[in-house]
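User: Sequence in, structure out. Go.
Assistant: Echoing your sequence, followed by the structure tokens.
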Amino acid sequence: MDKNIQKYMSFVKTVEYGSFTKAAEILNYSQSGISRMISDLEKEWKVVLLERNKGGIKLTSDGLKLLPYAKSLIAEYEKLQMQVDELNGLQSGLIRIGTFSSVATHWLPNIIKEFQKNYPYIDYELLLGDYTEIEEWILEGRVDCGFLRLPTHPELETIFLEQDQLMAIIPENHYLSDCTKFPVTALCDEPFMLLEKGAKAEVSEIFEKYNLTPKVHFTTWDDYAIMSMVESGLGISILPQLILKRVPYKIIAKELDVPAYRNIGLALKNKNTASLAVKRFMDYLQYR
């Protein structure tokens, strides 16, 4: 990449994230490297772009005037790179993907393996988070696309991929282990382990829909922690079926006696401006 473009990106990303450290993370540089590139820009342009203090960084009036032009240059550079990729028949590229753990564990390895048969020189960068974090990463441009529960943020474009059934999770010696379908009302009879973080997820929505109040004793976004606790007899839970592939715990998954599922899709900011690599990846997912 041209050195000047690197400097412009360092400037723009530092402002976007309000931190040298976060900009360094996104651009895969050291914090000192980001700071040095911005200092170089300031010397070249003979202006001060950022005010640096203990509370972080702040744009100067000169920085505020120049920021839109730096952003425009970066956008044009990205368009140039996309055109080069297309002319080269997508021989190289990078796809940055936001994903949650069950997709990362059970879907992505096979998806990438098959996709690489046609596009062997594409590289991947995966960021693991919850639904809210992935939405933010897409909107901020930290990732190109992300796997999410649908519906999602109204500013994002999405494609539906699969419906994932939600299952009641109980220990092997549970008194309802022989039932055909697990009564949703029985979820309130004993301690409940809730798979959730930040904003309400699909499990809480089930309880709200049927006016139920579970005895939530533990809340986490770690599905394996929940399975381990259920195995130990500390309570019961609801988990998506996708998580329950190749489970190493002695637990039983039961279909609920009410409809319960999540819709999984791929989201991105704008399909038209996505890189060729991302477009091909989307096509593959839709028709796999």
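User: And one key feature?
Assistant: The two ends are 34 Å apart (CA to CA).
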